[in-house]
Amino acid sequence: MTALVAKQTGLVFAGPVGSLDAYIDRVSQIPVLSKEQEIELAQAFRANGDLDAARQLVLSHLRFVVHIARGYLGYGLPMGDLVQEGNVGLMKAVKRFDPGVGVRLVSFAVHWIRAEIHEYVLRNWRLVKVATTKSQRKLFFNLRRMKKNLAWLSEEETRAVARDLGVDASDVREMEQRLAARDLSFDPVPETDDEESYSPASYLPASDADPAAEVEREEWEEDSSERLSVALAKLDERSRNILKRRWMSEEKATLHELAAEYGISAERVRQVETHAIGKLKALMAPAA
Closest by alpha carbon to 56, among 108, 26, 91? Predict the structure, then answer.
């Protein structure tokens, strides 16, 4: 990380290039610019493209990036990477800074620094993205800070957070669930005592599945359903009803139940059923 910053800013280290502590110590020794110096350098860069002026603006604000990056250590990401991303934001801010607006560079740059660090945290905090929309991003960084303890928010607290952040209560509940969830390996290594692997990959279609065969199967099922509907329509009402009650209902009727309903013997119901099935097969058989 420090080697990259050194290349981008021309910073020279007193200690080892790979040492984050040496980098932090070095940037803390760089003098802070006065308001007049800052305006002069910003005007030189904005009007004349003076890269040396831009470099001085960046160098003098590297300590602020370190300060901001420390606030994101709670996400368990490397401090060096946080600083590096923040430095990218600082450079973008220097490129866009207009001294004529009347604000100091640090006040303008803090938003760019945080934006770059936010993007890095969202990309790397979880294997699976937890925030994609604008409201989800707002919740991701604020919900952890606003929760007073590790307990789940009550309904009243959920509404209060939603009101304070200007989002829906449903978004708050969804983000709270995402933050509480853990990442699971998609294809984990089985434990020694496990007889079977319960990887999510086990539930995917076989890798050698033929898409053409899948399409053919779906078309066959669709065609069969259509021919079955046509064939059923050609049966008499009693035969059609007996088949549907016996084979196409969730609660299948017994022979005796249908016999009592139609006033015939159970054996006669069985004969009607057998005859209707044979007629269906003949009607559904593909034409030669």
Answer: 91
